[in-house]
Write a structure and sequence with these properties.
247 residues, alpha/beta, Purple Acid Phosphatase, chain A, domain 2, six-stranded mixed beta sheet, 8 helices, 12 strands, Calcineurin-like_PHP_lpxH, Ap4A_hydrolase, Metallophosphoesterase family protein
Length: 247
């Protein structure tokens, strides 16, 4: 089974469609969406409906902090621009779309795989996995061999051996990485809708379960079209400008 791991879609239709097309061409047989379907971008309804359609066909989906903010109100520590977009997004979604976001679980276990937006140790508190310390804490919080996280917008990979030795990688796109199950692995695919590592190309990863490999991908997309939609919607222009620079 080839499992496409897609996270932090952030209402970016152009990026999400490009990622889905690429994943299909790479032979994806199942999809996992790791949260933050809305926020920042100008196409929240299309992105939510796209995820809903995939879930009906067997995809996994968990909720992120922007999804929770849209249905329950933004958290006090959210930046002003993010809060403004959430308020705008609430007016763009229909009740069935809001209900879908409202009912998303914070985490989901499937066999020896854990899917969660932020981390395994406190999913509802939205703490970031910024480095090895947080990654190890997350891996200690689950018996699963594979943990797939979003929230961080840069692709990263961490592992923990049975003896407690931890390691990390900054992955090279399109290069398969062996991920045997005698170690625990924490995978951050990077953001599909708003990469922040200086590369504007959309991020996702493919987990090939039979081959025990993980491949990170970067997919160019029409970020100018996505940016223009943000400006036309009257959303903060900084959110449009950053797409061209992967910030």
């Amino acid at each position: 089974m080839k499992l496409a791991l897609i996270t932090d879609l952030h209402a970016n239709r152009e990026a999400v469609q490009s990622v889905l097309d690429h994943a299909k061409a790479q032979g994806a047989q199942r999809y996992a969406f790791l949260g933050d379907y809305v926020g920042y971008g100008a196409d929240p309804a299309w992105v939510v409906d796209t995820v809903i359609a995939h879930v009906k066909e067997g995809a996994i989906a968990v909720g992120g902090n922007h999804d929770a903010g849209t249905t329950r109100g933004p958290s006090p520590n959210m930046r002003v621009d993010a809060r403004r977009v959430i308020e705008w997004t609430q007016q763009q979604l229909q009740e069935h779309q809001l209900a879908f976001l409202r009912e998303l679980p914070l985490s989901k276990v499937d066999d020896d795989m854990l899917f969660v937006h932020a981390n395994a140790f406190a999913p509802a508190e939205w703490e970031y996995i910024q480095g090895r310390i947080e990654a190890v804490r997350s891996l200690h919080a689950t018996p699963c061999h594979y943990t797939f996280c979003g929230h961080m917008h840069e692709p990263k990979l961490f592992h923990l051996s049975g003896t407690g030795k931890a390691g990390e990688f900054v992955p090279t796109p399109a290069v398969p990485i062996p991920v045997p199950p005698h170690r625990q692995w924490l995978v951050i695919p990077g953001s599909a809708g708003q990469p922040r590592d200086g590369n504007p190309a959309a991020c996702y990863a493919m987990f090939d379960r039979p081959a025990q490999t993980l491949t990170f991908h970067r997919v160019p997309y029409d970020h100018e079209a996505a940016a223009q939609k943000i400006r036309q919607a009257g959303l903060p222009s900084v959110l449009a400008d950053r797409l061209a620079h992967g910030e």
